From TrEMBL:
Protein name in UniProt: dihydropteroate synthase
Classification via PANTHER family: FOLATE SYNTHESIS PROTEINS, FOLIC ACID SYNTHESIS PROTEIN FOL1
Cofactor: Mg(2+)
Source organism (scientific name): Swingsia samuiensis
A GO term, aspect molecular function: dihydropteroate synthase activity
Reaction it catalyzes: (7,8-dihydropterin-6-yl)methyl diphosphate + 4-aminobenzoate = 7,8-dihydropteroate + diphosphate
Biological-process GO terms, alphabetical: folic acid biosynthetic process; tetrahydrofolate biosynthetic process
Gene3D superfamilies on file: Dihydropteroate synthase-like
GO cellular component: cytosol
Source organism phylogeny: Bacteria, Pseudomonadati, Pseudomonadota, Alphaproteobacteria, Acetobacterales
């Protein structure tokens, strides 16, 4: 899953693809490099982000969505707003990526249910708590989210879980979360999306700036796949495609 942020303030590439023409050029580059899905976000979710209105979010998304959908691209929209999700789904978007796991906007589960789309249900919290038991909190949070999905009528096969790496977690908790993906997968028997590309834990453990975190990201994603991740949300598609081609050759043979 290739990341496309049409925002002025995302932590890694804010402002780089804010212009629709630049965004579309980058989207097609990601596809050429091997992306199977494009995850498009129009509101930053970095720590300390400034919220935008649904109208502004949609104004950023619409010029990019339509051309990509017309060419048959599998598109995910990263939003917590039911109205933005509804407009995206009407255009033909196939996945909604909700960083609050259907718990932020009470209309979101019903918007998803009224479509044929999949939804990424991500674990989140309002603040970091170094004493939080991540596995127990996953269970508490995802039980609520999946109950909301069931009540709204979202079929289980349309659900994808995201452990929420980098969201209200200490660096140590992020590592624990990656190491515990098999537990999460065993508990819910659902696909797992892992989104850790260039995140701050690499700065913490490696002392690397945002632009120097590719090696750490590759290593963490390889470990994540070994632990059960099914979808990788990344900035650097070509490098991941190469890494996993070799990984699969070694594991599966020529």
């Amino acid at each position: 899953m290739g990341i496309l942020n049409v925002t002025p303030d995302s932590f890694s590439d804010g402002g780089n693809f804010y212009d629709p023409h630049t965004a579309l050029a980058h989207a097609n580059r990601l596809l050429e490099d091997g992306a199977h899905i494009l995850d498009i976000g129009a509101e930053s979710t970095r720590p300390g982000f400034e919220a935008v209105s649904a109208e502004d979010e949609w104004a950023r998304l619409a010029p990019v969505l339509n051309p990509l959908l017309q060419q048959g691209t599998l598109v995910s929209v990263d939003t917590t707003k039911a109205s933005v999700a509804r407009a995206s789904l009407k255009q033909g978007v196939q996945i909604i990526n909700d960083i609050w796991g259907l718990q932020s906007d009470s209309e979101m589960p019903f918007v998803i249910a009224d479509s044929a789309a999949h939804v990424v249900v991500m674990h989140n919290a309002l603040k970091i708590d170094a004493e939080r038991d991540i596995i127990a909190d996953w269970k508490r949070f995802f039980d609520v989210s999946l109950n909301l999905a069931e009540k709204a009528g979202i079929a289980k096969e349309r659900l994808i879980l995201d452990p929420g790496i980098g969201f209200a977690k200490t660096p140590a908790q992020n590592i624990q979360a990656i190491r515990s993906l098999k537990i999460l997968k065993s508990e819910y028997q659902l696909p797992i999306l892992l989104g850790l590309s260039r995140k701050s834990m690499f700065g913490h453990f490696l002392g690397r700036s945002v632009k120097e975190r590719l090696a750490g990201t590759l290593a963490a994603n390889i470990a994540g796949v070994h632990e059960g991740a099914d979808i990788l949300r990344v900035h650097d598609i070509r490098e991941h495609a190469d890494a996993f081609k070799m990984y699969n050759l070694i594991n599966e043979g020529l």
